[in-house]
Design brief:
The protein is mainly alpha-helical. It has helices at residues 5-19, 32-36, 57-64, 74-87, 107-125.
Length: 151
């Protein structure tokens, strides 16, 4: 299956952050977009609130100029982060009085957030969700598997 360079790099960075325990939804350097952008927080200046999908003036200027950050436009970055935070159980945009999980470092919670984020990244690139393993369980009329399991 074809994947774009940006998708392959984003998944690799998110995978590494998940397994290195350096993924944290509330930190702009350690959240989904922070990791995709090499643990920088400069992206937070594209919007007025963490988790918002509305670009501010700076974000609109960058978007209008066609700028990308590790292959993603400012609008795409805002949507990626919103997808991650929402899947982790946060109300958006983040606010100290908003709904949030009791343990943002819970591996199951982060996995759910990453699964939704990777599905969204695949959708952005028009490729099949790499996290979808349902095809492995498809079978023919004679109950033989449709696809072989290969490693």
């Amino acid at each position: 299956m074809y994947t774009s360079k940006r998708l392959a790099q984003a998944i690799t960075k998110l995978y590494t952050a998940f397994h290195d325990n350096t993924l944290h939804p509330e930190c702009c350097k350690s959240c989904a977009v922070g990791n995709i952008l090499d643990n920088t927080d400069a992206w937070k200046h594209l919007s007025d609130a963490h988790g918002s999908v509305v670009l501010n003036y700076v974000g609109k200027v960058h978007q209008g100029l066609g700028r990308t950050f590790n292959g993603y436009t400012p609008q795409e970055l805002m949507q990626i982060e919103a997808t991650f935070l929402k899947a982790c159980g946060y109300s958006l945009p983040l606010h100290h009085r908003g709904v949030k999980p009791s343990n943002p470092n819970d591996k199951e919670l982060l996995f759910k957030g990453l699964s939704e984020t990777i599905a969204f990244l695949c959708k952005l690139d028009g490729v099949t969700n790499v996290m979808d393993y349902s095809k492995l369980f498809e079978f023919k009329e004679d109950h033989a598997p449709v696809y072989a399991l290969t490693f």
